[in-house]
Amino acid sequence: MVSEWFYDWFNSPYYHLLYHKRDDAEAQYFIDNLLSKLHIPLHSKLLDIACGRGRHAIYLNTHGYDVTGIDLSVENIRFAKQFENDTLRFFVHDMRELSYDRYFDVAFNLFTSFGYFTTDEQHIGSLINFHNALKPGGTLVLDYFNSHKILQNLVPNDVKKVEDIDFHIQRTINGNKIIKTISFDHGNESYSFKEMVSTFMEADFMRFFKQSGFEIISTFGSYGLGGFDAEHSDRLIFICKRSDA
Predict the structure, then answer these.
(1) In terms of pTM, does the model score above 0.85?
(2) Can you tell me whether residue 222 is helix, strand or coil?
(3) Which residues neighbour 47 within 8 Å (Cβ) at sequence distance 6 or greater?
(4) Residue range 60-105, pLDDT digits in tens
(5) Which residue in 9, 175, 207, 238 is deepest, having the highest Cβ count within 10 Å?
(6) How far apart are the first and last CA of the chain?
(7) What's the CATH superfamily of 19-146+200-242?
(8) Considering all CA atoms of the chain, what is the largest pairwise distance in Å, rounded to the nearest integer?
(9) Domain boundaries, the chain
């Protein structure tokens, strides 16, 4: 079995250093566009699944929503908890083991926080958990990278210098996984981490949503909510409704 790489990598401070450009302005731009599309009533209960350090959840909360953020990274949740208030809370949870029952109006799974697991069954099981967490007629927003464009433009090797660290990044394809190996030296120590994300396409998600009880309402290809085009879009964003048929 492939080891679950995300426990070590997402708990590492180097993860946030490497991806420091994933900033609050980008998150707020995306959320503003989603809110203008979704028209969510004030005080609705929102769930941010795989919330990271909480940048989306915190911003949603400023708009008057009751927000719960969950993430499997203990370090991420420890960081996010400093922002808690009466209508914003964070918990350590694995999306594969959620047990909420018809509690939330809207669930978000953003910034390719999916596709990490070894089997389709685990992914479908997670989506079933998302479905169960939503009230009847509730909404799911799932934001993934555009696998088709990623595969067409894969850069096998590059180096990203952040502060005083040279991150050496190698990308390979193994089956339906994009494997990114991140190696670097810091403080007289050598480190190596992996990311393994499934190359799910639009058709895969259509199948997953059908099997987990969701109906796709809209599909977008950018954080500006432009139309999806497999050749050119950077993102693959779904707005779905919980189906109770």
Answers:
(1) yes
(2) coil
(3) 67, 68, 69, 70, 100, 103, 104, 106, 107, 108, 133
(4) 999 999 999 999 999 999 999 999 999 999 999 999 999 999 999 9
(5) 238
(6) 36
(7) Vaccinia Virus protein VP39 (3.40.50.150)
(8) 59
(9) 19-146+200-242
